[in-house]
Amino acid sequence: MVARSPVLNQSGPAEFVFRVFTTVPEFQALLFLLFLLLYLMILGGNSTIIWVVRTHSSLRTPMYFFLCNLSFLEISYTSVVVPLMLSNIWGARKPIPLAGCGAQMFFFVSLGSADCFLLAVMAYDRYVAICHPLRYTLIMTQKLCIQMVACAAGLALLLSLQLTALIFTLPFCGHRREINHFLCDVPPVLRLACADIRVHQAVLYVVGILVLTVPFLLICVSYLFITGAIVRMRSAEGRRRAFSTCSSHLTVVLLQYGCCSLVYLRPRSSTSEDEDRQIALVYTFVTPLLNPLIYTLRNKDVKGALKNAVLGKAAPSGAN
């Protein structure tokens, strides 16, 4: 890519504005209500999972420990993006300063990366539970679970810090630039740079491979062993239960890794900014919303704990 010279109005600190979804007031109100409803559902659903896991001793196992952390990441992940997005839909567009854009990118990338790493950790947990059931409690100790979550978070923070710092060393043209997106994501911000970004794009691909491709391959290997173990099970009920648990996890995995790969691993020549923004809506709203739905509707343990919690609260009210 040929380097571009900075143009026009370099006075004052640089800042960005996000491109609007629509300029029609009726559609703006509709989008605001839709995204607000989805955000509240994400907060409510994932908070419910955290509450149920934390308050029911029967769910204090490694699988639900990881699920609890996944729900926390989903809440944090969407909260980095959606409140600012809603404020820009409702009313005049509000500029975001360079430092604010960098902070949002750092937290968005780090939380999203930790989410991907955690899904790989959960696949390993299912591998141990199904392929080595007698040794499960010996292998998946509380200490190891905490270490795996800490490593996932630490690696995500390290990669995100390096990528964000590298991108924001670039010069950006003009005083106020429009981002064709609803957040400060890496690809749309890179497009605004007034310099050669080939090295930065290469770094983005490397980070994308580390965050998406490597964990996805580990998940595939885990599920090859899991599938072999399930097929060899003699109990039909055991096979059904194992497939049910694993299919829930695989649904989240395919949606998360698939959408993110389309944005971060496709060649720039085959992508458009509008497509990236539409795909980003999926992993910003749909995946965090499906997480609690999939893990509760397809999981007897969580449904039972929720039922007991509701009945337990209803009983004292009925007694009065």
UniProtKB/TrEMBL annotation:
Membrane topology category: Multi-pass membrane protein
One GO molecular-function entry: G protein-coupled receptor activity
Coiled coil spans: none
G-protein coupled receptors family 1 profile domain location: 45-295
Transmembrane annotation, as ranges: 29-52, 64-86, 106-124, 144-168, 202-226, 247-266, 278-297
Superkingdom of this protein's organism: Eukaryota
Main localisation: membrane
Keywords attached to this entry: Cell membrane, G-protein coupled receptor, Membrane, Olfaction, Receptor, Sensory transduction, Transducer, Transmembrane, Transmembrane helix
Subcellular location: Cell membrane
Keyword Transmembrane helix: yes
Pfam families linked to this entry: 7tm_4
InterPro entries reported in the protein's UniProt record: GPCR_Rhodpsn (IPR000276), GPCR_Rhodpsn_7TM (IPR017452), Olfact_rcpt (IPR000725)
Gene Ontology CC entries for this record: plasma membrane
Function, in words: Putative odorant or sperm cell receptor.
Protein family according to the UniProt entry: Belongs to the G-protein coupled receptor 1 family.
Protein name as annotated: Olfactory receptor
The species this protein was found in: Ursus americanus (American black bear)
